[in-house]
Amino acid sequence: MTGLQRALNDLVIANRILAHHGVFDEYGHVSMRHPGDPARFLMARDCAAAFIEPGDILEFALDGAPVNEGNRPLCAERFLHAAIYAARPEVKSVLCAGSEDVLPFSVTPVPLRAMLGTVGDMGTQVPVWDIAEKFGEDTDLAVSSLERARDLAQRLGGHRVVLRRGVGFVTTGRTLNDAVKTSVYIPKNARTLAQSLQFGKITPISQGEVDQRLAIDPESNAMRRGWEYWAREAGCERWL
Amino acid sequence: MTGLQRALNDLVIANRILAHHGVFDEYGHVSMRHPGDPARFLMARDCAAAFIEPGDILEFALDGAPVNEGNRPLCAERFLHAAIYAARPEVKSVLCAGSEDVLPFSVTPVPLRAMLGTVGDMGTQVPVWDIAEKFGEDTDLAVSSLERARDLAQRLGGHRVVLRRGVGFVTTGRTLNDAVKTSVYIPKNARTLAQSLQFGKITPISQGEVDQRLAIDPESNAMRRGWEYWAREAGCERWL
Amino acid sequence: MTGLQRALNDLVIANRILAHHGVFDEYGHVSMRHPGDPARFLMARDCAAAFIEPGDILEFALDGAPVNEGNRPLCAERFLHAAIYAARPEVKSVLCAGSEDVLPFSVTPVPLRAMLGTVGDMGTQVPVWDIAEKFGEDTDLAVSSLERARDLAQRLGGHRVVLRRGVGFVTTGRTLNDAVKTSVYIPKNARTLAQSLQFGKITPISQGEVDQRLAIDPESNAMRRGWEYWAREAGCERWL
Amino acid sequence: MTGLQRALNDLVIANRILAHHGVFDEYGHVSMRHPGDPARFLMARDCAAAFIEPGDILEFALDGAPVNEGNRPLCAERFLHAAIYAARPEVKSVLCAGSEDVLPFSVTPVPLRAMLGTVGDMGTQVPVWDIAEKFGEDTDLAVSSLERARDLAQRLGGHRVVLRRGVGFVTTGRTLNDAVKTSVYIPKNARTLAQSLQFGKITPISQGEVDQRLAIDPESNAMRRGWEYWAREAGCERWL
CA C113 to CA B218: how far, in whole Å? Predict the structure, then answer.
């Protein structure tokens, strides 16, 4: 299997894992930087994640333009992925999901913090991007232009995750598995943090613990154990 | 396929999507205005939504009377649909569901607000109808007469959604998909709002953002992506 | 089909509906008064509800003694059912379930109230029985004797439902369907009440609304719609 | 079937029951002391619990070293099990799970208490082990050495359960079924306690009630009813 075919299969698996976990429903999109060309990225056409097949994956430039013209509907928010790949050379995967559990941390002053060791790699700071700050209070909230995407990328800065007010969260990954693994745990972490805050003073994951988690190779056996398990759970054996 | 057959199939799909999502359980009813006659509407006989087939759909006049007499049990709350179609010519679909997540906003002074972009079309105001206000504290809570239904329609006014104290919510739609899509997200929105209120000052969807969401054609690709996905998830391919 | 065979099949369906809904898990028991002899009741042997078949149903006297000696393990809490049937001639069904959602109302001073119209028949008062009041703080919490059962029946009095501290709830029914239907909604009602209490002043189901719900025949079409739906959902068509 | 084969099958069933209940996901590990040699214990290779088969079970000494060298990946936290077996001769099973519901009790000053009769055997005290106390604020949180494991075992002391800050909980059992049964209920108990604390003064399971629960033979019919039910639910009949 070529590197590109491996990438297409992995992106299909990623979509279906995220759909299976309810991280994606009819909304949600994930991409990866092209394995052969850092100025390109791969993402599915506009389609619910649970149905995506390798033939649905398209190639984009870092301005969000599709490399091959076609007549398949494009994800309106491809610009979000493009701008992050342009701003962050080390990022190899970008994922955007809605989450009712994460949303409260995007619409109130309470910050999202890592409480579970498994999302220590999320870091100790999770910025929030509110489209209204720059684009006013009458948008459709969508990151449907490069201008909006660059503003979000600026708020993301060098962090791992940024929240979108009223929408959900964006995760970056050093690899596709890295982004997927963290994203599966982000809603659980949000729920456990919400409950902990009701109890009183919290002990979050420390900066040192974050650094240790980030030091683990995202492609090591321990970090890939979830991938194979979740791929099977999602019925994706044929693409493994 | 005729326009009527398309409507019957869509109504079956709608029922089954809503059952699949848990928006409907053994209770819950959805209707659409007859595609060929605005003085009629289509709704299933009294039957759990998960089992409805095209042959279960009946036709009603705007006083709730069935067009064809028959011996199939009728939904006791058909009057609710009738009164809304009579009061609101632009409404093409009406849906009524119980929801444990929405109920707290109908039995306390806290108002339901749109927090998720995906329910921005719910509007900035969601009125509450308490049957006891006009009909006293010893009813069975059911909208089982035109008189009760007209009182509810009055409280709904020009809004998209009205809550029923102790029961759930009523959604109106410009199309069937419009009502279904919003209704799938209403319980999620309620949960995320409840959590946000615990955190402090909230940033809900603004009037401008609501207007932008309402400006999107409910039958556009982006708005219909959920319909096809959810229909497949609910096992409805044969009626698509 | 004889009246007794109908009763056995219904009791199997009830068990499986309650297991399917998560009202029963490995714990949970339901009984009905014998259709031919008010001094007897029917209940399954000690077995997880999801596996019960007609051949598992045993007959008991109102002191909890099995009518036919056998070697199948008996439910240790059959005395609870016996004592209620003895104290309440109009009760035709008794059900006992654990519930994490109901438990907080049994271990704190906050009373369980009906908030959903669908559990209006639960009444405006739900007493709590704490075994420690009479039997001390070192029991195994089980209603495994007639003495304990009679104390619980006394606390139940003429009410529909009683909570057991640290265990769950007991529902009585005028028919089997009546007990099952209410019990399916009790955990949902508990969750929605817990959330409502966080919001402030609540509007529960009034006494008049309770009376109206209780006036509905539990075997009417409207009240039986859930039974058939849930039976199919639980894979019980063959016993319908 | 030999005692060892019975043990291997039971350990497979335990893994799959815990996966089926969501107590384990891609993380989670359970072991049992070797039936023929108290200086050994049995645990699966490093693999998601839902896929474990008898051939995946390995044998370890009480220093965490595998008895048979091989090339299958080992669970990094096998030392946790080893240290507990070494410190507690009466313990026959050890289980470690993540739990979003339990976590708040490990990251705040609020203690986990038994509220449900079914987890009375958890005891009235549940200590919390924070790896940072002894090992500093820059670990990866994993119990991946005997030194860390012994420190955790010391915090566990003679208790049934210990929480791991930022990770989840560790349960000990007098038998494998004992550890599994309690662990299935621990997250439910955590949720119900969290809700009860919002209501006010709580009535937890008393020491006397705990003692009564602990007096019940964990291998009695009543305590094994869940095992067979859950094994079937998890598709494990062939190993029963």
Answer: 40
